[in-house]
Fold this sequence. Notes:
Elements: E1 6-9, E2 13-19, H1 22-28, E3 35-37, H2 40-53, E4 55-62, H3 64-75, E5 79-82, H4 89-100, E6 104-105, E7 117-123, E8 129-134, H5 148-151, E9 157-160, H6 167-182, E10 187-190, H7 194-199, H8 201-208, E11 212-218, H9 219-226, H10 231-237, E12 242-248, E13 254-257, E14 262-265, H11 278-291, H12 296-310, H13 320-333
Parallel strand pairs: 1-5, 1-9, 2-7, 3-8, 5-6, 9-10, 10-11, 11-12
Antiparallel strand pairs: 2-4, 7-8, 12-13, 13-14
Amino acid sequence: MAHFDLYGLGNALVDTEYHVTDALLASLGVDKGMMTLIDAEQLAAIEHRLRDQATLKKQASGGSAANTLIAAANFGSSVFYSCKVADDALGAFYHQDLVASGVSTNLDQIREDGTTGRCLVMVTDDAERTMNTFLGITGDLSAHEVDESALTRSKMLYIEGYLASSPKAQAAACEAHAIAKRHQIPVALTFSDPAMVTYFKDQVRDMVGTGVDLLFCNAQEAMTWTGAETIESALDQLSKTASQWVCTRGAEGATVFDGATRFDVPGQAVTPVDTNGAGDMFAGAFLHGLLNDWGFERAARFGVHASAHLITQYGPRLPLASHGVLLDQFEATH
């Protein structure tokens, strides 16, 4: 039977990305830099405005954990992703996109009637991404979608924080966490977005449980989660949540803790175009390195290298061929 380096659980969303002005963003009444949940009526109204007043850049399968697992797979890791899409055109597109990216998935089974989730990604001139998300059928992701056989044949479980916004999905995350613990499989969790620790903190806390083995967050999420007034104070408190952790810090790079030693990894100077997916790419590159015994510092340097390259273009993913080139470049110099 197949064994996997990484098993992921998260939302399945088809991302449609637009370049927008700050004025348009303000007129839409959405919170810049945040993820906001919307209903089908809001989705239609906002997309109508975007089609008329913004520039369409890209459409791709997405979701925080999906982006991370796709990156890890294209760097050479073996991965399995559990998610939920509908038996519609976008669901078929999403499934095909995962398979083309080398990701094993539960979507090979029969899909249900409904509407596949969508995410409108709006990128302003400062490269900041703002997301409005219609969960659709992924809001019904439940323990039914957890493939225990694949999970127990994996080296690590990776859970996205966005699941905290749906009671069923939150329960699925807790179930996967419990299965992993029973089988002594390390559990990694990403906060995914500042909105999750701002508006769904209690639900995220339930997903964390008594603690996770590896936590991914950014500086804003770390400060919101801990209630600290400075990033240094927040970092000092992250070990209460996870035995090991990673905190991305934008242009400053990342700070990581392997359970014994803290490492500060500098950023790379690039001109950002779109920061959408930067944290997901970092996590995918980092996990690929970690699961290949690179150690935290080297894995974090690869995460910075890959995410810096990603933000110089539109979209949360790199072309498939770019992954091997980036990996070769990094291994030649590190």
